[in-house]
Amino acid sequence: MTNNQNSKAHISNFYAAIGDQLIHFNANIDTAKLKQNASVRFGLNIQYVWRHPNLSIIYLALSNGGPGNKGTKHQLCACNLNTKDGTIEDIINSVTLPYRPLHLSIDRQKKHVLVAYNDPCFISVHQLETNGAISSRIKQDINLDEGIFGHQIMATPDGKEVIFVCRGFDALNGKPERPGALKFFDYEDGKLSFKNSIAPNHGIGFGARHLDFHQNKNWVYLAVERQSEIHFLRINGDATNKIIEQKVSTLAHDVQPGVRQAASAIHIHPNGNFVYVSNRAYLAKKCSPEQIIPNGEDNIAVFKINRETGTVNLIDSVDTNGSLPRTFSIDPSGRLLIAANSEPARKKNKLGQVVDLPVSLSLFKIDGDGKLEQTENLAFPNDDQLLFWAGFL
User: Fold this and answer.
1) Diameter of the chain by CA atoms?
2) Span 361-393, pLDDT tens digits
3) What span, in angstroms and rounded, lies between the C-alpha atoms of 182 and 64?
4) Residue 7 DSSP code
5) ω into 325 cis (within 30 of 0)
6) Which of 164, 133, 116 minimizes the C-alpha distance to 52?
7) Model confidence pLDDT, tens digit, residues 136-151
8) Do 282 and 293 touch, CB atoms closer than 8 A?
9) Could you tell me which residues are beta bridge partners of residue 232?
10) Choice between 104 and 218, residue whose per-residue pLDDT is larger
11) Less packed terminus of the chain by CB within 10 Å, N or C?
């Protein structure tokens, strides 16, 4: 994604989606503080947002569904963005989607929107007009149900392939584990052709969620949700040669009793020297009416990248002072990271005290060594909607 910045004042445009509301903030990069501005409601819960790389247009995946709820109304929406003040202007157009979307992105040719769905596991590709409006959905000649619980769809840097990241499911209620995978498709002018998969151990123990591409174009870093790991692989060469070269835990400590840990978002620093992953702590079993989460890791893990080998080393873990940092974003200058604590929760802190945690945005200055220093926690105590997405645009 790109970003409009006032270089003199060092202000960036940041957005947070709470329920159906997209809130615009001015992010002061120097002070690492947020100032809330206007907001827009879309009538359906915002699932993900992506900006056109060339045009002042954003695309929103919308649904009246949510986690564990398929919903009944789903849309892909295009909106004009005022690049001077960051406000969201008029809706250009919207189209109906077949299922609840979880992720969207734009292909490298900037001609199509790619949309990922989890239930059913599905992909749709939508053509864009030259003005950025959403046009027709591209008919595919293959069965796209290639995977279990699709969570992200991204075109590779050369634009010739699309990777569909599939998370799978843990074993639950007597049902066996269902495998995860990275599904590779050849891609040309909106058309997908299934190519190959990466699924170590046939996908068992491989709960892939999100990936990011390094600036050198062939290193890939993958957040593996169900195992709380970061994996490193290369994507040059044939898909059959794409192997995972390194697996490292994203956690700083052993998993605490009663906690289920899950890795979430992943982003590489603009300078290519660090990669960040968010960790989330859930109650392992919902067995009490209080639903108090034991002390676990709701944090941002910081990894240093070896610029010669591509491998990573955990150098820091910083608490987000909230619950379930589902998403986070790094400003294009690489000086500020903002994490979105997505759900209100009751949680035990390190002292064993029960604290109430509202949805919130946690701001961190990024030091030259890649480590994080928290500067602000902006809470929304009266909002019981999910803070499902946040990012610089």
Assistant:
1) 59
2) 999 999 999 999 999 999 998 878 999 999 999
3) 28
4) T
5) no
6) 133
7) 999 998 776 668 999 9
8) yes
9) 221, 246
10) 104
11) N
CB 274 within 8 A of CB 312: no
d(CA 45, CA 126): 20
Model confidence at 173, pLDDT cuts 50, 70, 90, reads confident
Token pair for 241: 């040669």
- The yes-or-no verdict on residue 239 having pLDDT over 60 is no
Distances (CA, A) of 323 to 65, 96, 198, 263, 269: 21, 32, 31, 13, 23
Q: DSSP letter string over 75-142?
A: EEEEEEE-TTT--EEEEEEEEE-SS-EEEEEE-TTSSEEEEEEETTEEEEEEEE-TTS-EEEEPPPSS
- Candidates 129, 137, 91, 136; CA nearest to 111 is 129
Do the Cβ atoms of 203 and 168 come closer than 8 Å? yes
Distance, CA of 249 to CA of 151 (rounded, Å): 20
Cα four-point dihedral sign 124, 129, 130, 131: negative
Calpha distance 17→27 (Å, rounded): 16
Q: Exposed, middle or buried, 26 (CB in 10 Å: 0-12/13-18/19+)? A: middle
Which token pair is 298? 């709701």
Neighbours of 294 (CB within 10 A): 16
Q: 115, 123 in Cβ contact below 8 A?
A: yes
The token duo for 345 is 């929760």
First to last CA, the chain: 6
Mean pLDDT of 358-363: 97
Please report, for the chain, how many H helices and E strands are present, in that order.
0, 32
- Which position has the higher pLDDT, 143 or 281? 281
- In tens, the pLDDT along 28-81 reads 999 999 999 999 999 999 999 999 999 999 999 999 999 999 999 999 999 999
Bridge partners, residue 381, by sequence? none
**What would the DSSP string read from start to end of 131-190?**
TS-EEEEPPPSS----SSSEEEEEE-TTSSEEEEEE--B--BTTBPPB--EEEEEEEETT
Sign of the torsion angle spanned by Cα atoms 67, 73, 74, 80: negative
The residue with tokens 């058309």 is 191
Residue 274 has pLDDT above 90, yes or no: yes
* DSSP structural state of residue 241: G
